[in-house]
Every structure is written in C-alpha cells, then in structure tokens.
Amino acid sequence: MYYVANIMRSEGDPKIVRSGPRQVPPADRLARSLGWFSIGLGALELLAPRRITRTLGMQGDETLVRAFGLREIFSGIMSLSVDRNAGLWSRVAGDGLDAAALMSAMRRDNPKKHNVALALLMVGGIALLDYRGAQETAQRPQNGRRRLYPDRSGFPKGLAAAKAAAQRVLSHAKAGAS
Amino acid sequence: MKALVWHGKEDIRCDEVTDPRIEDPRDAIIRVTSCAICGSDLHLFHNFIPGMLPGDIMGHETMGEVVETGDGMNGKLKKGDRIVVPFTIICGQCEQCKRGNFSVCETTNRKRHLAEKVFGHTTAGLFGYTHLTGGYPGGQAEYLRVPFADTTHIKVPDGLSDEQLLFLSDIFPTGWQAAAQCDIEPTDTVAIWGCGPVGQMAIRSAILLGANQVIAIDCVPERLSMAEAGGATIIDFKTESVMERLQELTDGRGPEKCIDATGTESHVMPSQPDTILDRAKQMLMLESDRPHVLREMIYLCRPGGVISIPGVYSGFSDKIPMGALMNKGLTVRTGQTHVNRWTDDLLRRIADGEIDPSFVITHTVDLERGPEMYRLFRDKQDSCVKVVLKP
User: Fold this and answer.
1) Number of folded domains in chain B?
2) Tens of pLDDT along B133-180?
3) Chain B residue with minimal CA distance to A139?
4) Do the beta carbons of residue B94 and residue B107 sit within 8 Å?
5) Residue A5 has pLDDT above 90, yes or no
6) Distance in angstroms (rounded) separating the CA atoms of residues A127 and A122
7) What is the phi/psi pair of residue B16, to 5°?
8) What domain range is B213 assigned to?
9) Domain ranges in chain A?
10) Residue numbers of B between 13 and 32 with CB closer than 8 Å to A
11) Among the four A11, A146, B9, B53, which has the fewest Cβ within 10 Å?
C-alpha cells in the first residue's frame, strides 16, 4: 500500500517507511460498512427490481422497489460522508418503510410469504445495526466541563488600550491626509 | 522522521517517513519546533479540496530552526537561524512577488499545469496542501524542506516564544489581511462570520485597525466567549436571528464591512434550508462548496460595503445572489494570504506587546497525537479552538 503512495511522490519528497495505526472509531467503521451495504442493495433494487418482486411475490411493485433503491443509494452516500449520522438515521427511517412494504406482502394468498418473513427478519436485524450506528455516531457531548475563554483577549495591554492605540493611529492618519 | 500523513478521507496517520533533503541551492531544511492544525487542514481531512494523494504530509503552520541550507542563500539564511515558514512559497522575483501579491507567485507551483487547468492561471505553491498548489510536503513533521527558502521565511528573534510567533505563518496574517482589505474606517461596523482561529485573528485585527464596532457570529460557546474577550459583540446563530440582531446593532443599516471566516463548510441546520440543499448537492457532487455565509453576507451587508473572504472555497458554488451583490454595489475581496506583505508589521506589533496571538491556543500535544487531535478539533471536543503540535 505504501508502495503505491510512494511511487506517486515527487522525486526527493519524503516517502513512507512505516505507517502508523489507522485511527477510525468503531462506530465510523460500522457506518462505512452499512453505507456500502446500502449502496449495493440500492443498486440491486434499481437494476433488478423484477427479480426482487418475484422473490417476494410482489409482482407489479417494481416502481416502488426502484424508488426504494434510489433511497438506499442516497442513504448509503450519506452514511459514507462526514454526515454519517444523518445517513444512518435516514437508513433507520428507510428500514421502517421497508418493513411496512414487506408487511403489506405478508398476505395469506402470497405463495412467497416465507421469503417475505425471512426478509422482514433481515430488515429487523439491519435496523438494529442502523440504530446502534446512529446512536454511536451522534455528536458526542463535550468531554467533561465546557471551558469558556472570557479572559483571552489577546491584547497584553488590555482591550481598552488596543482600541485607544488604534484610534490614535487613525486620527494621525487623518491629520496627515488633511 | 515522524510526520502526519494523509491516507484518505478522515484518515491521517503518524507515519515514519524518509528525511527530506536539499534538492535545490535555494532550499533549506528546518528542524520543526512547533506546528499547528489549521481549519483548512480539516477541509483536506474531509477530502473536500480536490487534488490530495495518499502519502501527502500535512501542515502549513510551521516554525523551527534551520539545520541545513543550499548554496544559493546569498547570506539571507544560515544554519541556526530561527524562522517561521509562511504557508505560501514565494520566489521573490516574479512580477506578482514584486507587487506584493505573494500568494499568486508565478514561479513556485511545481504542478502549475494542474492549477492552470483548474484555475485558469497558476497560483503560489503551498505547503501541505493539494497538488493543485504544488503538493509540497507539509510541516506537521520533525523536519521540513523549505523550497525558495531565501525568500520563503520570516526570521524571528529569540526573545519571543514559539507560541507567540507560530501564527505568523498563516492565521494571524490571514485574519489581518481579511480586515485590512475591508479598508476599515472609524465609523465602520465589521461583522465576522465564523469564530474559529482565523475569525479570532480577524476580530483582533479589526479592533487594531480601528473599527467602531466588531460583531462576531458563531454557535460554539467557547469560540463566542473568546470572541467577546477580544472586543466583539457576539451573535449565536443557533439561538438568535442573525438578520434581526445585525439590524438592531447597526440601527437598521447593516454592517459596512463583512468577513467570511467560515468558507466552504458552512454549518448545516434545519432552520437554514439552503444549507441542507447545499450539503445534499455536495454529496452528489453537484456543488463543491456550501456558500450559506456568502449568501447571508451579500444580503445583510450595507450597500456600498465590502465583503472580505479569507475562508477557503474549493470549487463551484450555487445560488450566489449576484443581483443583490451587483445592485448593492458591494466590493468583494478575497484570496489566499500574501503572508510576507504583512509579517514585518505584525512581528513588530507582537514584539511591542500590542497583541499576543498565543491567546487562541487551547491544546498543545506531541506530534504523535496529531491524528487524534484532528478528530478532537473537528468535533470541537474538550473546548478545542486551536491545536499546537510539538514534534
């Protein structure tokens, strides 16, 4: 891996000898996995909706499956971005929609209802992961007590002195100009 | 040597890399004594600025001691000198450098063909930044090669600490230039969006340049408290209407001078729907920047006023209200900082005790903890405003 990074260096630039540890929090790793899963599932729903509706006994609902595919892809992109928390919450909401759509297919007259039950089980499991990821990637609260900085003016002689000095310079400049 | 290396989006590691060496007679090698993480490093961390490659060394706020020089120094720099390294690499000889437009030096960008394709013309080479600006290794490392070192340096005296001097490399002159290009008059109100390190410097600069009133806009309590300490009236945009408060504070006229110290990553929040739309478009690669602050400034600036943009933008922005900008007769001034244009004056002000830029430092840690500090700074954890790293 360093080899690829190193051959892209300009001649003479420092090259990697040994790489340090990658510091990705577990929650971010989970978000990334769910993001790619979402994009994969979305692509399948978008490109092969008939295969999905046949498997679930939902023939005629191809447009709905395609729409869900688009939603999955967008949630996936969001889950891979720096706004991964919003992406994961959108996945949780999407899981709700998926479950609702699957429930509507749990009819007695559906010969593939065992597939639907299996799909519902999977959606439930994924929803748990999505929910956990969304919880863990939420904006972390401040560690410990928040520190404010009301004493950091940056002016060693004080704010009033800084303002007065500025006014003096401006009035000198004005006098010089007139 | 150890260095903080970019490996991809949100993936910066402390790697062992080969030492830099002199490649040109105008080069110098410095042993880095202090370096810092800049807000614009976060744009790279998030991979919002195009043209980064795995293996790039981060960092453009650096100072240290010269340990080796090439043969072409002409007596301007020698071993043992203590220098601050400006983030813009300058030749000092091209027409732009002679005019003092150092950040658009025509010589130092070694990948000028990329810049010419993307920007139309080349701009100066920058340390630890995108390959559009040369892809030079940065200074978050134990050693740094400084190209064109005979002109790309600020010699500093021994009596002042690293913490007082380090920010001459970028954020202090950047905040200063932002205020200076507003042409502040004694009756002016200067409104500053963003109270990160550059915003903090812009506030102090506006005070030192004689603004009648400085207003600072942000939503992070630590930053707002620091802004208030520096003499600004503060607006928390999460709890107050920026428009109403600015109108109130300027008797309905609006601020004459507006500074965008936020740049491409405007805060996204439901009460500002355009920020959500921008973020969605950015994710789908339909827009590269989130210019909410720019829109707000154009809308709220007093007609005939000045809009100064030190905040970094990366590419393309949508829905800029050009009608308001044109009809209100606003002047827009922007650019990467012409660091060396300002540093003699700023160094004198530090030495005279007019200002001490170290007020902004909240965390000082070893270089090895750099990757962790990127996340801490990004997440505004532990009341972090500015991180200094010690190799």
Assistant:
1) 2
2) 999 999 999 999 999 999 999 999 999 999 999 999 999 999 999 999
3) B379
4) yes
5) no
6) 8
7) -90, 120
8) 173-334
9) 25-136
10) 13-21, 23
11) A11
